[in-house]
Amino acid sequence: MISCSWQMLSYSGSKTVRKMMKFAKCYVQFVKRGCEAFCEPSPLVSSGHLEALVRDGWQSQKLLKAKQGLMAIDCPHTGIVDYQQVALSFAQDFQEAGGSVLTNFEVEDIKMAKESPSRSKDGMKYPVVIRNTKGEEVRCQYVVTCAGLHSDRISELSGCNPNPRIVPFRGDYLLLKPEKRYLVKGNIYPVPDSRFPFLGVHFTPRMDGSIWLGPNAVLAFKREGYRPFDFSARDIMDIIIKSGLIKLVFQNFSYGVNEMYKACFLSATVKHLQKFIPEITISDILRGPAGVRAQALDRDGNLVEDFVFDGGVGDIGNRILHVRNAPSPAATSSLAISGMIADEVQQRFKL
Q1: Going by DSSP bridges, is the β-strand pair 137-140/107-112 parallel, antiparallel, or unpaired?
Q2: Is the peptide bond before 329 cis (omega within 30 degrees of 0)?
Q3: What's the CA angle centered on 162, arms 305 and 313, to 5 degrees?
Q4: Is residue 303 within 8 Å of residue 197, measured between CB atoms?
């Protein structure tokens, strides 16, 4: 496990993406309500890396219509991007550098080759064999995996410790109807609960003009369970038997029940949104898309919130680097994280 400042990675990553991609400037505020503990500005703010202002209740209300806010950290130079465009751009750069992108390649096995392939001039230069469920093979000299929801299973193929396990949490979003979008002028985030890695329900403008509200955080019954009734018996058994989920549930029972309740009843979510913008009503929203978070969990039910790198055992362990956990905000920090992974690759493989 590697400890790293997420603030610095987020700052460095967002700065790099801003240089490369089309983005829209969009205010963001972390709003304090009631007696919720207010976080101190991060070291990045006080050291001058980021321009951010601590605003009182009247200023935050005027800027973003967060009418119930008592205080807020205002980041006026925050940007939003179309992350699908970002991902496609990364893939294009990779292909232009000579790489190949294979899709629908479900990995079934990773092992060391016993002999060089027939008619090969490279001999055993590429000894790692990755085989998919269709029997197709790719030979590699070194391997880096970033398998997200399947990172624990992929890493086990090269002999890694099964822990931490991945537990999928679905995050459902709501959409603000077009005629009500004027209510939200920028990103609005509640001050997060430090006990959990989830940011809580927030207001997110998108590049296409839509406004997303959410997400919640509920257990998904399938690793790729983007819909409420998606179910996999294998995934559920893994979650119950092999992970520390039961301990997590007992430690945070009321929080979990509250999230499930909000997922089932829109009125409960709207009531929470109204704490920030009272004008929003249940008739102003529609159900939207969902995402699934690959949350790493240890055997004691603790949420793993740091980077986890692993390799495996034997000869194959010297040629594989598994990125088993990349904590949020991994999208914002993606380019900075890639630099950190590249450094880890050089160090492990002695390149």
Answers
A1: unpaired
A2: yes
A3: 110
A4: yes
pLDDT digits (tens, 9 = 90+) for 92-116: 999 999 999 999 999 999 999 887 6
The pTM is what?
0.82
The Cα 323–Cα 147 span in angstroms is: 8
pLDDT, tens digit, for every residue of 193-231?
A: 766 656 678 899 999 999 999 898 899 999 999 999 999
Q: Kindly give, in sequence order, each residue whose CB lies less than 8 Å from that of residue 309, ignoring residues fewer than 6 positions away.
A: 1, 2, 321, 322, 323, 324, 344
